[in-house]
Amino acid sequence: MRKFLTSVFVALMVIVFMSATDAQAQSDDGKKIAAEKVTLEGELIDVRCYSAMGARGEKHEMCANACAKAGDPVGILTKD
Fold first, then answer.
1. SS3 for 77?
2. Global pTM value
3. In the 8-state DSSP scheme, what is residue 60?
4. Which residue from 5, 6, 8, 38 has the fewest beta carbons nearer than 10 Å?
5. How far is residue 31 CA from its own chain's centroid?
6. How many CB atoms lie within 10 A of CB 21?
7. What is the DSSP string of 15-42?
C-alpha cells in the first residue's frame, strides 16, 4: 500500500509541476497558443490491466506498480 501511495503522490506531483509551467502548444498555422491549466481528480490506474480486465484498486496495487516500473502506461480514472 505504501508503494502505491508513493506512486500516486509522485504522479500527482508531476501533474502539478507540468500544470504550473507555462506550457505552450502550436496551432495548425504555427502560432503559439497558451495551454489551459486543469486539475484532475481520480484514481491512478495501470491502463493495460484496466483495459483488459477492469483491474484497479488496492487488490491490483502490486501488479500496477510492477507494470508502471516496466514502462507500461498509467492513467487517471475520473468519475466522468
1. strand
2. 0.50
3. G
4. 38
5. 28
6. 9
7. HHHHHHS--EEE-TTS-EEEPPP----S
